[in-house]
Amino acid sequence: MSGIGVFICHCGSNIAGTVDVDELTEYASDLNGVTFATNYKYMCSDPGQELIKDSVEEQDLDSVVVAACSPRMHEETFQAVVEDAGLNPYRFQMANIREQCSWVHSDDMEKATEKAKHLVEMSVEKSRLSEDLEKTEVDVNSDALVIGGGIAGIQSALDLADQGKKVYLVEREPSIGGKMAQLDKTFPTLDCSSCILTPKMTDVARNPNIELLTYSEVEEVDGSVGDFEVKVKKKATYVDWDKCTACGDCAEACRRSGNVEDEFNEGLDNRGAIYTPFPQAVPAAYTIDSEVCISLEYDGTCTSCREVCELDAIDLDDEDEIVELNVGSIIVATGYDLMDPEKIYEYGYGKSKDIITNLELERIIDASGPTDGEIHRLSDGEDVESVTFILCVGSRDEELQSYCCRIGCMGALKHVHLLRDHLDEDVDINICYTDIRSFGKGYEEFYRRTRDLDVNFVRGRPSEVNVQEEKVELNVFDTTMDKLLQVESDLVVLVPALLPSEGTEELSRQLRITRSSDGFLQEAHPKLRPMDTFTNGIFIAGCCQGPKDIPDSVSQASGAAAKASTILSKDKLQSEATIASIDDDICSGCKMCISVCPYDAIEYNEEDEVAEITDVLCMGCGSCASLCPTGAIEHKGFKDEMLEAMIDAGLTEEEG
Amino acid sequence: MSDEDFEPKIIAFLCNWCSYAGADLAGVSREQYPANILNIKVMCSSRVSPEHVLRSFKKGADGVLIAGCHPGDCHYINGNYKTIRKADLMKKIMEDFGIKPTRLRLEWISSAEGGKFARVMEEMTEEVKEIGPLNLDGTSLEDDTDE
Ligand SMILES: Cc1cc2nc3c(=O)[nH]c(=O)nc-3n(C[C@H](O)[C@H](O)[C@H](O)COP(=O)(O)OP(=O)(O)OC[C@H]3O[C@@H](n4cnc5c(N)ncnc54)[C@H](O)[C@@H]3O)c2cc1C
Ligand code: FES
What we know:
The structure holds 2 protein chains of 2 kinds.
Chain A: E1 3-9, H1 21-29, E2 34-40, H2 46-58, E3 61-68, H3 71-84, E4 92-96, H4 98-102, H5 109-128, E5 137-139, E6 144-147, H6 151-162, E7 167-170, E8 185-186, E9 191-192, H7 193-206, E10 210-213, E11 216-224, E12 227-234, H8 249-253, E13 260-261, E14 270-271, E15 274-275, E16 287-288, H9 294-298, H10 304-308, E17 321-327, E18 329-332, E19 336-338, E20 355-357, H11 358-365, E21 386-393, H12 408-422, E22 428-433, H13 443-451, E23 456-459, E24 464-467, E25 472-478, E26 483-489, E27 491-496, E28 498-500, H14 504-511, E29 538-540, H15 550-568, E30 572-574, E31 580-582, H16 592-596, E32 602-605, E33 610-613, H17 623-627, E34 633-635, H18 640-651
Parallel strand pairs in A: 1-2, 1-3, 3-4, 6-7, 6-18, 7-10, 18-29, 20-27, 21-22, 21-27, 22-23
Antiparallel strand pairs in A: 5-30, 8-9, 11-12, 12-17, 13-14, 15-16, 19-28, 24-25, 25-26, 31-34, 32-33
Chain B: E1 10-15, H1 19-28, E2 37-42, H2 50-58, E3 63-68, H3 79-96, E4 104-108, H4 114-131
Parallel strand pairs in B: 1-2, 1-3, 3-4
Helix pairs in contact in B: 1-4
Bound molecules: flavin-adenine dinucleotide and FE2/S2 (inorganic) cluster (FES).
């Protein structure tokens, strides 16, 4: 007759020195369901393992209990032994009589032995209710989706493509590149941003493994790790990109040319209705902004662009298109937006053209930007004699964004270098700062070099910025000098807080991933799983997870690609075996489990009016099982009956 | 029964990731604590339901401990927050059944807190000893006013 075998380990004298192992063995052999019990010096040693294996066969055991050290030490060892002996590994239970018994009650052999008996009995009772458990398997689609084509998304896509994976890169603007494309030079090395970015952008365009979907947005996400179904909306561009060579004739002919605010230049310049965001855009093609095109938005009469396009690429009947993708893993790299500085009324943004953001300054310094790299007062074109930066605009501010933007200080230091190159040496440069944070590799050195450039560092946050007739005046209390200063400037550069990019909230809902309290996408562990989300198979990279500079964005992007690749490289994925399962005959469809599942692993089946678990998403915490009012949910390996039997066994009074 | 001889029985539900590991560390550090406590491992403290707690009392436990990861550290994101709410509920139910709510204790013990685990075991054994044995014969409800 088959039954349970109990194997008690002496662990040298670690257990046997405190627990009477012979008495324990005798006790175990009388327990319900136990057909064999023995003890041995070192159960984890080779002879110990052999003993278990042989006994399973000779004694016709169907389950095994080992009373030894902590399962954290050797559960896997013994599971493998049991499996080797032909049993399901979940037919194994472990009683922890070392860490949680002999070692902590070493001064009282009697009590330790009594406790060990209870612990063994509890494991035997659990074992009596144990069953064979299997891991469910799902097929893995080896394609990947990257959402957001800034430097982070570009890096992830290139890494995955290099590993031979097919990648869909979805970007909502007409071109990839993100914020980095708008930068002039980059700290701390001052290399030109587009010189290091554009080669990567063309790599993306050329890579046969990457399918670029720009001017597109994710509409719907279904499925789970290994098999996500994603609907992407490709917005109509009204230009056939297969034909367009980006010659630019259309843009010149456009009747709205010079009438529409140019986003790439932060509104410091104008474009027309048909445009390409910037000369090195990828894909190199034009797009018609339907909201401002005379023909599309108004009366359909204008034909200027069509007349000049020799390739006949313009198609005003173009329509939005829904593309359906199947992917095994998703990387989100949707970046950031700058906070609108108008939120801080006292700083006067919007009241004078001479009060700008740091990103506007990037565009102004850029030789191919709206002023061809010439720096003058924006209000009247006069020479600039004084520039003042205000750092932490909305950052490190309990009322607005409590976190540090991580790039503001370094960005301003960089701008000092660039302004010194562009302006006369007698121009005053002031930086109003809270603390200068120069934490990265080479950053502190960069800060020191900047200090040599004749800059006034003022420690304090200005209280007010006032627009005067010509200049802009600001009041700031310098806390190192203990003095109220009044500074007149021709340009005031605000360094606003970084926010999650617009639409992050909606996207997080579509993807069923969480956001942290600051609104950025949340990593599964702040230290150990920085690119994972709580949803298996979805990873995050770059500023969508929190403000960071380019080196950190790129590192995280490569990390996320590697993480995604560990999934995409498998043919099949296995779920945990000790997960929850729902008996649909009992489920009343109350949905309470759905609300407590931290992984969105439970869905409501409208048709059958029951809850259903997606095995690969369930991580096996058991909180749904503890809550289910009808008892329809079973936590495999930790069933209610098992826990109850353990409670009962722990509390039985010993006879004699 | 005189308080001197009374050896309380305590059931401790420990989450796998923090508190069970903390209990192991207590062993590795050779901390000593009373042998009155029997541990039951669950994957997360949120697995413990009112039924488990009530059953423990019904079957003769004098105290029940639920121990999990510190708030914010739960391996399953927020299980321990659910445990807090459930524990409040359990205490109310216990009162209804005439069991002193102080017999149930909720603790956050991390895998690095072997010393804390031992101390909690010690304290809890003492406290339950002081409250005295639980008699759930249906005749006497425990008085919850702390005099
Ligand atoms: C003024 C300024 C100067 C800076 N200077 C430096 C510097 O010198 N050195 C340095 O290291 N760092 C600098 N930085 C920081 C740098 O800009 C960021 O580290 C970098 O751009 C982050 O890249 P990203 O890909 O994460 O985000 P982004 O560059 O923001 O790219 C995100 C992309 O995702 C797209 N997107 C957003 N939402 C969606 C959606 N729902 N669907 C599809 N696509 C979407 C966006 O259109 C964008 O293309 C500076 C920042 C500023 C503001
Ligand atoms: S895993 Fe420890 S409380 Fe949830």
